[in-house]
Amino acid sequence: MELDTRLELLLSSGTISEEVVETVRKVIQRMNHHWKIPLTEENGSRLITHLSVALMRLKRHENIRAMEPGTYEEFKNTPVFPKAQEIADDIIAFTGIEIPESEREYLNANVCLILEDE
Question: Hey, where are the domains in the chain?
């Protein structure tokens, strides 16, 4: 399955809106062109699924439980964390959407996983 197919499935199931699909497509392009990280189903499915669902949660004013502190600390201690945080901050700024800390942690973690796989 390709990332665009994943987005279309999330859209057709009513999980996300067309607005979210367009935002996430722009993030995929940003990752590829600005950060030189081409997202594929293999490396980007977690990030794209999380970001899509997170944006819908935010539209509905729903919250997500914060990541377990020990788990997040493990990510923070990886060599790729500073770059992952920079990329996640860029994604947030690029979308122009206020994202709470709990969602930021998951976003940081998902970007870490992509960078670790490079």
Answer: 3-117
87 close to 107: Cβ distance less than 8 angstroms: no
CA atoms within 13 A on the CB side of 29: 8
CB 27 within 8 A of CB 95: yes
The CA distances from residue 111 to 11, 21, 30, 71, 93, in Å, are 23, 19, 13, 15, 15
CA Rg value for the chain? 14
- The pLDDT of residue 88: 97
Q: 47: buried, middle or exposed (CB in 10 Å: 19+, 13-18, 0-12)? A: buried
Distance, in Å, from the CA atom of 26 to the CA atom of 30, rounded to the nearest integer, reads 6
Please tell me whether the overall predicted TM-score, pTM, comes out greater than 0.90 for this model: yes
